[in-house]
Amino acid sequence: MTNSVEYSTTETPINTVIEDKVIPLPTHKSSNNPHINDSVCNNVSIEQLQSELIQARNLAGEAEQNEEIAKEDKQAATKARTSLNQQITAFKSEGRGLNKDSSEFKTHQEKLKFLSSQLTEASKLEAIKSAEYSDALKSSQLAKRGVSSATASRNDVQMMFPSKIPDSLLRDYIVESGAIKTFSRTEKDGNSYAYKEGTWQLIERESLEYKFDIHILAKIIEDGYMDSRVKSFTNMCARSFRVLPEKKAGVKGFNNCAIEISNCGKINILEHSPELGLLNKANFDFNQTQLNCPYFEQWLGFISKKPTDEETNERMELVLAVLYMVMFNRYDWQMFAEIIGAGDNGKSIFTHVCKILAGGSCNVASMGLAEIEGKKGGDFTLESIIGKSLIIVPDAEKIASDFNTLKNITGNDPICINRKNKARVDLPFVPTTVVITGNQPLVSTDQSSGLFRRRVTFYLGNVVTEDMKIIGLENYLEKESSAIINIVANFFKSPEQARLVLKKATTSKDKLKAMTETDPLAEWVSTSLLPLKSSKIQVGGSASYKKSKEQKTKRDYFNAIGHEIENKLFSNYLHYCEFAGLKHPLSQKNFSKNLEAMFQKMKTNGFGGVTIITANGAKWFKGVEINHFSEHMALHKQDMIENCNFEDVKIKSKN
Questions:
Q1: What is the pLDDT of residue 47?
Q2: pLDDT tens-digit series, residues 331-377
Q3: Cα–chain center distance at 167
């Protein structure tokens, strides 16, 4: 791990030899501090101020060491007193059963008296050590204040350096003066950030060099310098920047303040600070007293409405959990929202509310799935997500993809972003949430659980009629911004409650519906298989299925293939694909692996206990059986009757 440069507290050499010439001491100008007059500045040398600062640091170091020793002594005394207390308590308990007239009782009492005297002495020693620690702590605090005072006095005198002063000395002075405290860097790639108006903003190297040139070097080098020096000096100082603070979870920034949601769900108002690690903030003020938002409540009730109150409440809870994730930028939950619905279902208003809670359009990147996956728009499409807290994919187009980039973004994985005419940015993760809207669910070619377990699917089933539409609803919702934030933030007792609502939704009925609509294997499992712990069924293969098709007569064919379809998983799957008109079924090689993954995805539907085993060189699935009453199996039974010319076809029946 790369750390910021740590500077020694020993005295920096004032005179430095370069090319056998001694560089003179830096001179100084009059202080700009109104509390320090020019006569003071002129009568106090830089050497004296530097010497006083070093002396103050040495005293602070000694005081801190004494504080640590006193603290250890106090802890040892407390430990000894506590141990004696425990011994006396245990000893008293042992003596309760002794006869008061016995010699054992007298011996016990004498030992108890001895332990009590030791406890008295230990308590006195603890009091002494506590007082010594208190004095040492006060001395340490005073010494630290002395360092701060000496540093301020030294910095009050504007230092001027000759042009040949080594860059390392300039850097030391600039770091100690606090001139670069508003800059930071990322550990991995060293990208620079500047803190401005409550947020850390990515700063290009050219802009950073300009700031060092005009605002730093030009003010401390009295006899000029070469332009070529600016770049190397900037690079040196950039390595001394503090590491970019990690954003605190559950913190949201606004123009006038920041808010934090505690673990118990309470909103705390915070002042803006670099330590919050905010990369963006809302473009409006927050008002904690605003609670009235009739337009939002009307919209929320409409999209949540279901036939029963229980279903309505569950849907409302899920909508608010999605909005909570977006509002507090909980990218660390590693989930994304997929909002599905036909036209006039309210998708655009849903995304507009998300934009409001993300802090406005300035914090939102809008792009298509093909652009995210690099299939459209060139090499620089991801540049627009830098510094954003929300990615919206409106009206997602239907593309067949493994969605690797989407998985990287939502999984907090490293990602490389190419930028036009600028250096690329290598991010350890993208601190943004994702909301996708569309008429149909995503069609993923990835059969692993990587995308599946992060996907929160929500169907919008209620149609907005013409008489229900409100002209300018977006503007009304924006005016209710603070009230919406208060409602969403206060709805859940804790952030964990909101996360669990989303986690539950990753295996909901909507999720199963989306999966069966887009994945033929999921549709086949849900309609053609039944979970049954005591059952075991062979996978089979396409070879025997194809061979049976080579039988000379229809009767021979259907007699041969009937057994395969009714008793082998792969043959049953192929029969389903023919029935459904699917031209590209899974190959035999991928079938078992994908089916095993599908059972895990559908574990909440009863398939969680299904396992794959190998016996006699063949693969079997344990815990599942074929549903002989599915639609395509009913067609198979009819085919058997019609083509084999007999009525008593042996078809397994459900017990």
A1: 63
A2: 999 999 999 887 778 889 999 999 999 888 888 999 988 888 888 87
A3: 39
* DSSP bridge partners of 199: 196
Please give the structure tokens belonging to residue 271.
Answer: 């002042």
pLDDT value of position 325: 94
With 0.70 as the threshold, say if the pTM is over it. no
Identity of the highest mean pLDDT range in 54-68, 93-107, 441-455, 544-558 = 54-68
Decide if 165 contacts 16 (C-beta within 8 A): yes
Q: Tell me the two tokens of residue 45.
A: 């040398």
In this prediction, residues 8-15 reach a mean pLDDT of 34
CA distance 235 to 122: 58
pLDDT at 644: 61
Taking each continuous run of H as one helix and of E as one strand, the counts in the chain are: 23, 23
Parallel, antiparallel, or unpaired: how do β-strands 336-340 and 267-270 relate?
Answer: unpaired
pLDDT at position 11, please?
A: 35
Task: Please give the pLDDT value at position 37.
Answer: 35
The distance between the two most distant Cα atoms of the chain, rounded to a whole number of Å, is 119
628-631, Cβ contacts within 8 angstroms, sequence gap of 24 or more: 628/566, 628/652, 628/653, 628/654, 629/654, 630/527, 630/528, 630/576, 631/527, 631/579
The C-alpha atoms of residue 410 and residue 335 are separated, in whole angstroms, by 6
How many other C-beta atoms are found inside a 10 Å radius of the C-beta of residue 7? 12
Structure tokens that stand for 620 in this block: 């079997």
Its sign, for the CA torsion 403, 409, 412, 413, is positive
**Per-residue confidence (pLDDT) for residue 437, from 0 to 100:** 92
Q: Beta-strand (E) ranges in 295-421?
A: 336-340, 364-366, 390-393, 400-401, 415-419
Query: What is the chain's Cα-based Rg?
Result: 37
**DSSP-derived secondary structure letter, 384:** G
Could you give the CA distance from residue 532 to residue 529 in angstroms, rounded to a whole number? 9
* Of residues 358, 629, 334, the one with CA closest to residue 481: 358
Confidence of residue 6 (pLDDT cuts 50, 70, 90): very low
* Residue 410 · residue 436 · CB < 8 Å: no
The 3-state DSSP class for residue 25 equals: coil
C-alpha dihedral sign at 619, 622, 628, 629: negative
Which of 492, 455, 431, 652 is closest to 563 using CA atoms? 652
User: What is the pLDDT, as a whole number, of residue 649?
Assistant: 40
Assign 403 to helix, strand or coil: coil
Q: Which residue type, as a one-letter code, is found at position 376?
A: K
Determine if residue 594 is left, alpha or beta; phi over 0 gives left, psi from -120 to 50 gives alpha, anything else beta.
alpha
